[in-house]
Amino acid sequence: MDNRQFRDTMGKFATGITIVSIDYKDEMLGMTVNAFMSVSLEPKLIAISIDENARLYTKLQETKQFGISILREEQKEISMIFAKQMEKDREIPFVKQSGVPVIDGSVATLSCQVKDTAKAGDHMIFIAEVTEIKADGGDPILFYGETTGQLTRNKEGIC
């Protein structure tokens, strides 16, 4: 199989859109990440996977802490800016949470401390302990087949 076929097939699994962000030498940096998952309840661990060519790859290994912002449907343009699909035409509404930047107004935000890493092909898996969460509610943006969408609810509010 080729890379395009693999990416297209993996795109059949709907995910949310997250922004992983760091404070690197007083500069707020972020990138779109949909390879994000819960790993453990005790301790509270999550994992993200980042391409070795990504701008944050080495910087995250250096800072060892990051924020995760689970974006809401109204933040689609922010996701496009971080995915390099749109020019940055506004200030990103970063706020600090436990010392790491997160995006204000997100469905939920997590502050994380890297506990372990594992090289996996051309990516690094970062396993991190969640040190703080904030959940504001709302509906997340969904990513499916290289496009974004939103939840559709019936009259009972069920998706």
From TrEMBL:
One Pfam family recorded for the sequence: Flavin_Reduct
Organism superkingdom: Bacteria
Domain spans labelled Flavin reductase like: 10-150
Keyword Oxidoreductase found: yes
Molecular function in Gene Ontology: FMN binding; riboflavin reductase (NADPH) activity
UniProt xrefs under InterPro entries: Flavin_Rdtase-like_dom, NADH-dep_flavin_reductase, Split_barrel_FMN-bd
Cytoplasm found in the keyword field: no
Keywords: Oxidoreductase
Xref: SMART domains: Flavin_Reduct
Stored PANTHER family: FLAVIN REDUCTASE, FMN REDUCTASE (NADH) RUTF
Protein name: Flavin reductase
Organism: Virgibacillus phasianinus
Organism lineage string: Bacteria, Bacillati, Bacillota, Bacilli, Bacillales
